[in-house]
Specification:
The complex is a heterodimer of chains A (about 300) and B (about 240).
Chain A (H helix, E strand, L loop, with lengths): L1 E10 L2 E11 L4 E5 L6 H8 L7 E6 L2 E2 L4 H6 L1 E4 L11 H11 L5 H11 L15 H13 L5 E5 L7 H12 L6 E6 L2 H7 L2 E6 L2 E6 L1 H8 L3 E8 L3 H9 L4 E7 L2 E6 L4 H10 L3 E7 L4 H12 L5
Parallel strand pairs in A: 3-8, 3-9, 6-7, 7-8
Antiparallel strand pairs in A: 1-2, 1-4, 4-5, 9-10, 11-13, 11-14, 12-13
Helix pairs in contact in A: 3-4, 3-5, 4-5
Chain B lengths: L1 H13 L1 H25 L9 H28 L1 H5 L6 H33 L4 H28 L3 H24 L3 H10 L16 H24 L4
Helix pairs in contact in B: 1-5, 2-3, 2-5, 3-5, 3-6, 3-7, 5-6, 5-9, 6-7, 6-9, 7-8
The chains are: A alpha/beta (about 300), B mainly alpha (about 240).
The structure holds adenosine-5'-diphosphate and magnesium ion.
């Protein structure tokens, strides 16, 4: 549904995108994850037809964004980073305007349903300028969806709103799965993990990793992370004991226990050795790696230390 | 194009500024009309081109005010980004906005026809003269609105846009005076050819319709709209 091939974007001598490639399948929620300045907005602006790439190509629902720009744009709903408003329009007028501009001939029903969906129907006669930040964000979603586009592109839709609204927005985005292809950018890793089916990690204009969140975890950390707590013996004893187990790669003290990184399943071995040594095993549990850890690791690997 | 046109026209009638302009406009034109009428009593025929003629100067200020919002606000609010990702061409956006401004101006002009109605009811004005003068100011207005639109697209600051276009229009208007005082007759003629006044005050204002003047105003409109489209397009490259 979204195919991106070797996109490059130069801004007056500065290269914001250095040849990125990824695809999004129909009905998929694809996360574009990266720190500020990674090139997320730039990528989205190219895909929405706002600006042309310097090199490379992209297709939306099979339409090339350069040669078939109008057709491609017809199939996209876009919510920019900062929801742009016409302050003097009513909520309903605003959404209707975007519906008509994107080719909806009879916008009435679509406008109504999208306003109801985002809890704005009661306020349809209010001026856009009177809406709170959270409501504006929902208005942004409403205008992006009013023409029922195949592809929805949302640029950091949860930025700058309060936690309750963040949850609402994430749920709204999740609800789009299957019916729409969504490209969703964020710099919050847990959010990408929670909302997206698949994640493309972007850093300094390059794709540094992509895949399903748990797939990424496996690729980057083939081993298991365990947390082990032992009763009896000191830190030294524990380090020695655990470190001697076959398959264990690293052991680090963590709180009152140890973080163990191992290849393969070493849980039974650990419990065996601990009791053989005359100690008691208080806790032994796998630690799920968050994208956060993966991300830090990937960025560390890709960015050579500055000298 | 018509979607943009309708939205912009709606914005005019939604904003208090537009009503303020309308009220001020009626007041001013009414004043001109009345004073001319009083002045004319028993001495001369009332001038049917009076309102268009006075408006030709007034447009130096009115056109920038009517157009300053059109692009500057979209750029500042960021709606231009969304507009440029909608499946419409720059051409339609620019034309829609321009026509909405011209349409609003035409409505203002139509209202002043009331005065012409009064004139007809109390005297026997030269209708050809009236029609030519109105046609002239209508085209003249379109050209000034085109200049205003161009400057609105060039900056995201409305006030700056209005200031710049007023300056340029004032220059185009005063250029006529410069043409009158320049000693070199050829230079003076050239100056008169490029100024707004030169194509209005000697022709339309006297009820004269000259092809070259129509072409001039149409040309100014076409050029400013073309440049505006290029400027809007260039927003994609920044
Ligand atoms: N219009 C522009 N002109 C020059 N540089 C830009 C422009 N827009 C973005 N950049 C630069 O390109 C890089 C990527 O920006 P952006 O795509 O906005 O990143 P993100 O959305 O991931 O934070 C940043 O370093 C930014 O400074
Ligand atoms: Mg961004």
């Amino acid at each position: 549904m979204i195919e991106v091939q070797q996109l490059v974007k130069h801004y007056h001598g500065f290269t914001a995108l250095k040849g990125i490639t990824f695809t999004a399948q129909p009905g998929e929620i694809l996360g574009l994850l990266g720190p500020n300045g990674a090139g997320k907005t730039t990528t989205m602006r190219i895909l929405t037809g706002f600006m042309p790439p310097s090199e490379g190509s992209a297709r939306i629902a099979g339409f090339d964004i350069l040669t078939d720009s109008i057709e491609a744009r017809r199939r996209v709903g876009y919510m920019p980073e900062r929801v742009p408003i016409y302050p003097d329009m009513t909520v309903e007028g605003y959404v209707r305007f975007w519906a008509k501009l994107r080719g909806v001939k009879q916008p009435h029903d679509g406008v109504k349903s999208v306003l109801e969906r985002f809890n704005l129907y009661d306020r349809r006669r209010h001026l856009v300028r009177t809406l709170s930040k959270g409501m504006r964000q929902r208005l942004g979603l409403a205008q992006a969806l009013v023409h029922n586009p195949d592809v929805v592109i949302l640029d950091e839709p949860t930025i700058g709103i309060d936690p309750q609204q963040v949850i609402e927005v994430r749920e709204s985005v999740r609800a789009l799965a299957k019916t729409h292809t969504v490209l969703f950018s964020t710099h919050i890793l847990s959010e990408a993990e929670q909302v997206c089916d698949r994640v493309v990690i972007l850093n300094r204009g390059e794709v540094v990793a992509q895949g399903q969140p748990d797939e990424l975890r496996r690729q980057l950390y083939p081993g298991d992370h365990l947390y082990v707590e032992i009763l009896g013996g000191g830190v030294e004893t524990g380090l020695k004991l655990l470190g001697a187990i076959r398959g264990v790669e690293t052991v680090e003290p963590q709180g009152s226990g140890f973080n163990v990184l191992a290849r393969g399943d070493v849980r039974s071995l650990i419990s065996e050795r601990v009791s053989q040594a005359g100690y008691k095993l208080l806790e032994l549990r796998p630690v799920a790696m968050t994208l956060e850890d993966i991300f830090l690791e990937v960025v560390k690997r890709r960015t050579p230390p500055q000298t | 194009m018509w979607i943009v046109f309708r939205k912009e026209l709606g914005q005019y009638f939604n904003s208090p500024l537009a009503y303020l302009i309308m009220a001020g406009f009626l007041f001013l034109t009414g004043l001109w009309f009345n004073s001319d009428l009083t002045f004319s009593v028993g001495t001369k025929a009332p001038d049917p081109a009076l309102i268009p003629f006075n408006l030709s100067f007034f447009m130096v200020f009115l056109a920038p005010v009517l157009t300053m919002r059109l692009f500057a606000e979209e750029t500042r609010e960021g709606t231009l980004e969304l507009l440029l990702t909608a499946p419409v061409r720059e051409r339609d956006i620019v034309l829609g906005k321009f026509l909405s401004a011209w349409c609003f101006f035409s409505i203002l002009l139509l209202i002043t026809l009331i005065y012409q109605g009064i004139l007809i009811s109390i005297s026997r004005p030269d209708l050809g003269h009236t029609i030519a003068a109105y046609l002239g100011i209508w085209l003249y207005g379109g050209a000034t609105l085109g200049v205003g639109l161009l400057f609105s697209a060039l900056t995201e600051n409305q006030v700056l846009a209005a200031f710049l276009s007023t300056s340029v229009l004032a220059f185009l208007w005063l250029g006529d005076l410069a043409g009158a005082i320049v000693a070199n007759i050829d230079l003076a003629r050239v100056i008169r050819e490029i100024t707004l006044q030169g194509h209005f005050s000697d022709s339309f204002a006297y009820g004269l319709m000259r092809v070259e003047d129509v072409v001039y105003f149409a040309g100014v409109i076409a050029i400013t709209l073309f440049l505006t489209m290029r400027v809007v397009e260039s927003r994609r490259w920044r």
